[in-house]
Amino acid sequence: MNIKDITEFLSNYDGEELSFMEVCGTHTAAISESGIPSVLSKKIHLISGPGCPVCVTVADYIDKLCELALTQNTCVVTFGDLIRVPGSTSALQETKSNGGRIQMVYSPFEVIELAKQDSNTQFVFAAVGFETTTPIYAVMMEKIIENNIKNIRLLTALKTMPAAIDSLCRMGGKIDGFIAPGHVSVITGADAFKPLAEKYSLPFVVSGFKAQELLATIYALVKLKGQGKVVNLYKSAVTDSGNENARSLVSKYFEPCDAVWRGIGKIENSGMALKAEYSMYDAGSRALVHDNVRNKMCRCGEVITGFVSPCQCPLFAKACTPENPQGACMVSNEGSCFHYYINNRGC
Ligand code: SF4
User: Fold this and answer.
1) Given the DSSP bridges, would you call strands 254-261 and 265-274 parallel, antiparallel or unpaired?
2) pTM of the predicted protein model
3) 327 lines ligand 1 (CB under 6 A)
């Protein structure tokens, strides 16, 4: 079927109501920017899931970074999208205004240069991400050890997707299939979703990021309704078994651990933490479990799990905007609220 026919089919669909979750934050961005929701029949709903790493990170993590930034001889190093995420009382941006030492970088490897240049400072790198970014942190660990660098610590909030999807399925929301995460699948392989597909009799379609690829994915999900199958429509980047070398490097330094997800809570073996033999490089990551968000009206937890759309949050586009974010989902460029706001998606 060509893309014109697929679009026509999806526009005119008049069967039972279907809800598909896009699990990946980059898919959320691509779907929002392409305007795909506006061409779909009112009976096909796309829900954004927990695929924005910053959004699923609990407030305790931000609080710890703020505390470290105010500690003598310590500098917190982070990517830009964490700077404005609110913790329970403050965001890193405010901590910086109050004298906290915070350095933004574009690559984790910049931390190594910073550490070499200033041996009197302990640099704490905020290592947040999913299966896609953990291999980069493993390479970073290789370089830290090779260069015998003693003044870098990682504060990790690393998560793995299949266990979170399993929890979502058990939470009982209406999900008829998943647009499986494209980038994560490069590492895990498409087969990683087979046990979930079979367990819940739900289709998983691995998708690329172009509008045509996403439309073909949604079409496949409609056709596969009720079938516990995995279909890989992103074969240019994703294989069945994924990237074994990357996973092997990750397992040299990191091990599975229980992790706490905003909106879901603790999920067994859904995170990665530095192994005990590398604990001297850890800045206290495993203790960060509470999620006391500053604005109690923020519904990020329900947005991430697909129970409400961003538009249903009472603060959306009022007290909460990208200029004045009240929750992580409005800060990150992978956040659902941010994309619903700037692309006027579905509100
Ligand atoms: Fe949280 Fe803002 Fe999204 Fe509401 S609109 S859920 S306050 S990020």
Assistant:
1) antiparallel
2) 0.91
3) yes
